[in-house]
Amino acid sequence: MRIRTMMLGAAVALALDAKADEGMWLPSQLPQIAKNLKEAGFRGDPAALADLTRAPLNAVVRIGGGTGSFVSPDGLVVTNHHVAFGVIQYNSRPDRDLITNGYVAPDRAGELPANPDYRLRVTVGFDKVTDRVLAAAKGKEGRAYYDAVDAVSKSMVAECEKEEGIRCSVANMFYGRDFYLVKQLELRDIRLVYAPPRAIGNYGDEVDNFVWPRHAGDFTILRAYVGPDGKPADYSKDNKPYHPPSHLSLATDGVAEGDFVMLAGYPGITYRHRTAAEFADQVEWRLPTAVAVLKALQDVIETQGKTDKDAGIRYASQLQTLKNGIKRFTGELEGLRRSDAVTVRREDEAAMLAWLKKRPEGAALQPEIDQVMAVIAKGKDVRERDFLVGLLSSQTQLLRGALSLDRLAVERPKADADREAGYQKRDEELIASQLKQIQRRYDPRVEKALLTSVLSRYQALPDAQRLPELDTLFGRTPAELVKALDRIYADTNLGDEAERTRLFAATPAEIDGSHDALLVAARTLRPALLRIDDERKTREGDLLRLRPAYMQALIAYREAQGKAVYPDANSTLRVSYGKVMPLIARDAVAYAPMTTVAGIVEKNTGKEPFDAPKPLLDAIRKGDFAGYADPATGAMPVDFLSNLDTTGGNSGSPVLNAKGQMVGLNFDSNWEAVSASWMYDPRYKRAIHVDMRYMRWLIDKVYPSPALLRELGVPAK
Predict the structure, then answer these.
(1) Which of 81, 82, 215, 689 is catalytic?
(2) Which contiguous run of DSSP H or E holds residue 529?
């Protein structure tokens, strides 16, 4: 193991010296590519970026499901409209529709609390713990290997979280080769300060999603609060604004084609170092299946919302997430097919393995690589079953609550270190918050319809993938399913917030003895869910043990080719750099890198999703762009393109200029590059950003908030 680690370190160091067109770099890697950064146009000191716990990177935060950044000493945070959409939806009602109308807080007392489970995390520590993790797992395999890694990770997390207000995790780099302990300050009181109307923040909706040119003002401004003692606290009127260790400055100048730009954020997950077999599975099964299933769920919510406005508002956030996922997966599938990614990856892998045979370490690595392939192949046997069973929780509200309460009853009698991750004492506050907010995101008719969609597909699975517990609970025919769901939802009291709160505080014996129909359903499903967990952990344990051999070979091979080597994204802080660039999408189709408000007017139909608000159209006609217009053209900018390397989770990432000032806000990728989570192609990979001049102009001239602009350090013109 020690020999492999040393060889990997050498390979990474060599590869970092190679000029790369791509890269989601760990901050600690940036000094090693200082020459490339300087050549690209960065004017700062790359060494100053190496420590993510110091300015400017400690101003970049994980928020909701994306990224945000502090932009004032009093805790203002800028992120995307769609990252904060759940906050906007949570505060909306039929008589106060903030989704449609937007929101401008009149003062700090008027800032609205986010949903209880909305969190902001500031990274304050990032330490390598590889030796400690691998020592615990040495000599084990399968489930035992998984459990060893899990146990030592929990132990480190528990030790780390003794400090109040701190949330910790262990991040896996290079698929089990390296591990890092990530320490984050978790803020729980986040409030809505400024949100543009939907027809600005989401102008174009799914028609324009992942499509260039874009004309969306996809931003929202929040504020983080702490208790009177300065420590993280739940929402209270007595809380005070959080004072971050640093904040980013908004640029007063804009960008132009060819300008250097840099982005910092928390990209969710990429798969560029996966095997050829996994590439094939993604293209041939996973993406087509996910698109079909999610489209059916989208249809359910949209159908229900047409006749019930209240239900439409309750499920607006979930619907938006579904639509975004469908568009993304569709684009990813199209892109991977267009680039013939499966063939390219198979040929690349074959060449790597042929190269490995000539290397002295090849004889030791090849048997473990063969085992990796075997474990991956075996996982295909239950992939559809596991996908559908996962949706029973992720796409429901009340059933998810019942499943959480039931699993808590299983885990609470155990020592905390032995509890399942997600159900330890550290997780109970978040579970309680999720149970509380169900009230604003649940409708029984919609939930039953969603379950019918998922379970009807499950009932069509071959017998080898069926689970007796699900068949017992829901039946094997559509008619039995309808009858079962009607009975379960008629005989549950979990729709009442007070009952959910009572049950959260109940003893395991009370939960196990409950006759509530949804809790009985969760109890019935429990053995099946635990078996699926066991199977998954066994596979993951073997892959954690074996995949490093594949990674060692792949990294060394990439280094020999002079290509960039960085860990696949895993929700840890990363930095990308590049330039503002146009796009040549295909033969005779070329796009300029910037859009203007003229495009808003050109697209406007007066009907959703191109129904620009009257105040915006009036301001565009007035043409008062002084201080915000592009100096070369006189036009009012909206969005711009760059070749920055991004993926999901980078939504809301700040885009900085060569001086480290914020010039943009990342919110999307172009259709041609959606597949970049698997395969990067510098010809097509572009990221789409809100131009900060557009955000400032909206706050100044369209939906004014002079006090907010002053706090942002860019007073009204």
Answers:
(1) 82
(2) helix 517-561
Q: What is the largest CA-CA distance in the chain?
A: 72
Structure-block tokens of residue 291: 């698109």
pTM for the model stands at 0.89
Nearest to 178 by CA among 30, 49, 370, 8: 8
Does residue 643 contact residue 20 with C-beta atoms inside 8 Å? no
Task: Answer whether 70's CB lies under 8 Å from 77's CB.
Answer: yes
pLDDT tens for 278-316 read 999 999 999 999 999 999 999 999 999 999 999 999 999
Determine how β-strand 112-113 pairs with β-strand 594-596: unpaired
Cβ distance 479 to 334 under 8 Å?
Answer: no
The one catalytic residue in 218, 443, 516, 568 is: 218
Closest C-alpha to 683, from 692, 673, 675: 673
> What is the residue-wise DSSP string for 160-204?
HTTSTTEEEEEEEETTTTEEEEEEEEEE-EEEEEEE--HHHHTTT
Whole-angstrom distance, CA of residue 226 vs CA of residue 206: 37
pLDDT in tens, 90-145: 999 999 999 999 999 999 999 999 999 999 999 999 999 999 999 999 999 999 99
- Based on the residue annotation, tell me whether 218 is a catalytic residue of this protein: yes
Q: Look at residues 304, 319, 299 and name the one whose alpha carbon lies nearest to residue 453.
A: 299
Q: Buried b / exposed e across 175-208, counting CB within 10 Å, b at 16+?
A: bbbbbbbbbbbbbbbbbbbbbbbbbbbbbbbeeb
What are the start-end ranges of the E strands in 580-636? 583-586, 589-591, 594-596
Token pair 């929780």 is found at 393
DSSP state of 578: E
CA distance 707 to 670: 35
pLDDT over 60 (residue 413): yes
Q: Among all chains, which residue has been given the structure tokens 């330039």?
A: 579
Tokens of 684: 């097509």
State the average pLDDT over residues 360-379: 97
Is there a contact between 653 and 669 (Cβ–Cβ < 8 Å)?
no
Rounded Cα gap, residues 479 and 477, in angstroms: 5
pLDDT at 561: 87
Tokens found for residue 212: 């260039």
Torsion angle of C-alpha atoms 32, 265, 189, 715, degrees rounded to 10: 100
Do the bridges between strand 240-241 and strand 220-226 make them parallel or antiparallel, or are there none, so unpaired?
Answer: antiparallel
Q: What is the pLDDT of residue 12?
A: 37
Chain Cα centroid distance, residue 7: 32
What's residue 562's pLDDT?
80
Three-class DSSP category at 364: helix
Q: Is 96 helix (H, G, I), strand (E, B) or coil?
A: strand
Distance CA 42, CA 35 (A): 10
Per-residue pLDDT tens digits for 548-580: 999 999 999 988 988 768 999 999 999 999 999
* pLDDT bucket at 4, cuts 50 / 70 / 90: very low
The helix-helix angle for 398-411 and 425-437 (nearest 10°) equals 160
Partners of residue 641 on adjacent β-strands? 688
Of the pLDDT bands very low, low, confident and very high (cuts 50, 70, 90), residue 9 is: very low
Q: Mean pLDDT, the chain, as a whole number?
A: 94
453 is catalytic: no
Selected catalytic residue, list 317, 404, 651, 677: 651
Residue of 82, 137, 532, 537 lying closest to 323 (CA atoms): 82
Q: Which two tokens stand for residue 477?
A: 């025919």
Residue with tokens 């309460």: 405
Reduced DSSP (H G I as helix, E B as strand, rest coil) percent helix, strand, coil of the chain, to 5: 50, 15, 35
Residue 7 has pLDDT above 60, yes or no: no
Tens-digit pLDDT profile for residues 645-695: 999 999 999 999 999 999 999 999 999 999 999 998 888 999 999 999 999
Q: What is the mean pLDDT of residues 424-438?
A: 94
Q: Can you say whether residue 676 is alpha, beta or left, with left for phi > 0 and alpha for psi between -120 and 50 degrees? A: alpha
